[in-house]
Sequence to fold (635 residues):
Amino acid sequence: MMNPSMDTNAQIVYQRPKSLTNAVTHYCPGCTHGVSQRLVAEVLDEMGLREKSIGVASVGCSVFAYNYFNVDFVEAAHGRAPAMATGIKRVFPDRTVFTYQGDGDLASIGMAEIMHAAARGENITVIFINNAIYGMTGGQMAPTTLPGMKTTSSPLGRDIEMTGMPIRMSELLAKLDGSSFVVRRSLHDATNIRKAKKAIRTAFEVQQQGLGFALVELLSTCPTNWGMTPNEALCFVEEKMIPYFAIGDYKVVDAVKALKV
Amino acid sequence: MAKELLKGNNAIGEAAIRAGVEAYFGYPITPQTELLEHMAARMPALKRTFVQAESEVAAINMVYGTACTGKRVMTTSSSPGVSLMMEGLSYIAGTEVPMVIVDVMRGGPGLGNIAPSQADYHQMVHGGGHGDYHPIVLAPASVQEAIDLTVLAFDLAEKYRTIAVVLADGSIGQMMEPAELPPMAELKKHLPHWAVTGEPGRARRLLTSIYLNPDDEEVTNMRLLNRWMSIRDNEVRYKEYFLEDAEFVVVGFGTAGRVALSAVRAARAEGIKAGLFRPITLSPFPENELKEIAAVAEAMLVVEMNAGQMLDDVKLAVEGALPVEFYGRLGGVVPFPDEILGEIRRIASGPIPDSNRHARQRWLERLALLREKA
Fold:
C-alpha cells in the first residue's frame, strides 16, 4: 500500500476530532455512546468551542464521558448534572456548558433538576441518551423501559399495571415555557446519525446565541443489557423504540428557527 | 465600620457578601429564610449570582458547580434542608473544592419545629454525608461572631480546599444585636490552579470524586486526612471565661455556651469557682485544651441544646481525668441560666452521687423530674 504522505493528492477526510482524547473506550461493542460522544466532539471542533467549554458528566455508563472529551470537565452526582451546570454557567456565562446524561440519570433520579433547569430557561446544552435501561448497574428497568421489556429488575417484562408507562422526556420538557429547543433523534443508522449531529449543532448554537435551554434526546442502544447483537440492537431502536419515542422536533422557538445551522 | 443593629440571618448574608461571595444558591426554610431573602435582594444588585433552587438537593449541587470554578460560593439552610444536602457535601469533599455552608439549626428530628436547637452537631461534626472526611465546623454565640466566623469560613475553606460550616442555631439567626460588618472585599482576581474554567491554551482540567481503583481512592483519602491533620494542628479556636482558678468548668458551644456564661457569672457571685470553656471550632475539636483543663479542674459540666452530642467528644478528650456531668434541653427548648446555675451548684456541693451510671442517663432522669414539676 502506498504511503499516503507520498501521494500529493491524498487528503485526510476523517480523523479523531480534537475534542476527543485518544483514550481506549470502555463502552461495549455496539453501544452508541461512542457515536454520540463523537458527534458532540465534532460539533465542538467545528464551532471552535473546545477550549471554551465545560462538560458535566453524569452517573451511569456516561460517568466516564470525561475520559473521552478533551475539554474541561466535572463529574456530577447522580441526576444533578443540570444543577451543577447551572452553578458553572451562572458564574461563567460566556463559556459553553453542557451535560451528558443517560435516562436513569435524567428521567428518574434527576427529574427535578432537569425540569427546573428547563423551566428556568438555563442557557445550557443537554445531551440525553435514551437507551431504555440502566447500563452501568447491569440492566435494570429505567423510566424509559418499554412495556413488556425484560430487565434484571423486571424479569417478567415491564408490567405497566405496576410500573406505569415509559416517560417521554422530550414531550414533557417541551411543555415548559422555559425550554427553547427540544428534539428527539436516533442513532440507529447513518441517515439518522447525520440528523442527530445537525440537532446537536443547533443545540450548541442555541447556547452560543444565548437563546436558553436546549436538549437533544438520542435514542441509543445497549446490546449488552438488552441481550442482543449490535445489529439486533439497532433494529430494536428502529422497530420498537421509535414507535413509542417518536423522532421529532418538540420545541423550537422562533428565535431558534431563525438560526442558520 | 460602625456598629449597627443587625439580625443574625441578615448579618451572615451581608458578611458573606463583604467577604466576596460570588454565587449563592439556596431554598427557603425557617429559621434561616431572611438569609436567603437578604441574598435575593443584594446579590443581583451587585451583579453576582443568586438562584432560588428547586430544592436543597439542587442548591448544593449548584454550589458544587460554582465551587469547581474556584469562585467563592455558599449556601445556607436549616436542619431538614441540610439533611438533603448531605449527598452534595460528600461529593464536594471528595472533589476537594472549597465552599461555605451555614446551618441555622432547628428542633428535630424529622420536621421538628422552628425553635433553636443544636441537634445537628453529630451530623456536621462527625459527618457530613458518606465517606471519610471532616468539614471545618465553626460555632458562633452572637451576631458579631456569626459575622466574623462567616468571613473566616471562606478563608479556611480555600486555604484547605475543604467544606467550612457555620453551625448556628435559630436564636443566632433570629436575634438582633449591635454588630460590626467588615468592609467590602474585592472579588477574587485569580482562580486556583485546579479550577475548571474552560480556559484556552492549557491542558484540560478535570474535577471528580470518582476513583474506581481502590488504590487511587486510598491515596485520595490519605490526602484528605493529611489535610485534616494540618487543620487540627493549626485551626483550633475557643474562648475561655473565668478559667484562671476555675474548679468547676462548664463546656458549651454557641447559644448554649452563651446562656451558660450567665450561669457561670451568677455562680461566681455566689462564690463558686466556676468557669466556661466555649469551643469555637467544633471541628477541629479543642481536645488538647480540654485535657489541660481537666488536669487541674475538679469537675466539668457539658451544656448543650441536644442530648449530649458534644458530651461524647469532651469525655474522649479528658480521658476520664475528672467527672463530666451533662445538662441539656431538647427539641428546640433553650435552657435558662437558672437551670444551668442549679447544675453548677449541684456539682460544686460535693461528690456526685450515683456517678457510676452514665451522666446522660442521670441527666435524663433529672430532666423528667424538672418537667413533672413544671
Remarks:
- Residues 214-234 of chain B form the longest helix (21 residues).
- The interface with chain A takes residues 22-23, 25, 49, 51, 53-55, 57-59, 61-69, 71, 73, 87-88, 91, 95, 196-201, 204-210 of chain B (CB under 8 Å).
